[in-house]
Design brief:
The chain is an alpha+beta fold. It is 27% helix and 36% strand. The protein contains two helices and twelve strands, in the order H-E-E-H-E-E-E-E-E-E-E-E-E-E. The strands form three sheets. It has a six-stranded mixed β-sheet with strand order 7-6-5-4-3-12, with helices on one face.
């Protein structure tokens, strides 16, 4: 009985060659690298957007807080709000109701106002606002009450400065021209990282500004 020899299967038909495997791996690596780059870019954009959003929120809070606090300079907040102090105010209060001084992070602003919400005679209150850094080097907006230790108010504020103001006569003055003048508004700048906001704070009592 004759045996029929079987034909050998063509080479490569049963699997991939080494070259084909290397090409497939190279393509897979390229696709993976592109996907990783896209994910990193998306994460970076998300982080940047979140950082901008946080900076905008910090700036808005700083503006609202400083407007509310600094407007009390030379005034009695209650009652009525921001009423002009009369001649019956304590002698200590009539001196230096708004004091400006340069700092390493812009300006310090000391506000003196009359507080007669408590029982007894009216009391002069001093609050100083300035930017600085805490023990770990993180930027902060600080308030210091009556010459005591500074208290952090708002994290992230890298600079706070007075850049000018409006005199009682309506003229715009630079920060250097403010000492010795009565003012109806201050122009301030607040910075959070690379973002900044300039704004006016109206001062109903028109306090006199003093220097350092």
């Amino acid at each position: 009985m004759r045996r029929v020899a079987s034909r050998p299967a063509p080479r490569g038909r049963g699997g991939l060659t080494l070259l084909e495997v290397m090409v497939a791996l190279a393509l897979a690596g390229l696709v993976l690298a592109l996907l990783l780059g896209y994910v990193r870019a998306a994460r970076g954009a998300s982080t940047a957007a979140e950082t901008r959003s946080e900076a905008e929120l910090t700036l808005r809070l700083a503006v609202e807080l400083l407007r509310e606090e600094l407007r009390l300079a030379g005034a009695a907040p209650w009652p009525p709000p921001a009423a002009v102090v009369g001649t019956d105010a304590p002698a200590a209060f009539l001196q230096q109701p708004l004091r400006l001084a340069p700092t390493a992070h812009g300006s310090s602003v000391r506000v003196r106002y009359l507080d007669h919400r408590l029982a007894g005679a009216p009391v002069a209150r001093d609050h100083t606002y300035e930017a600085g850094v805490d023990g770990s080097g993180a930027p902060q907006l600080y308030r210091r009450a009556d010459g005591g230790a500074r208290q952090p108010l708002l994290a992230g504020v890298t600079r706070f400065a007075v850049v000018g103001g409006v005199s009682a006569g309506g003229a715009w003055l630079s920060a250097e021209q403010l000492p010795g003048r009565r003012v109806r508004a201050l122009e301030l700048v607040v910075e959070v990282g690379l973002d900044a906001r300039r704004f006016l704070v109206e001062l109903p009592a028109w306090p006199q500004v003093t220097g350092p």
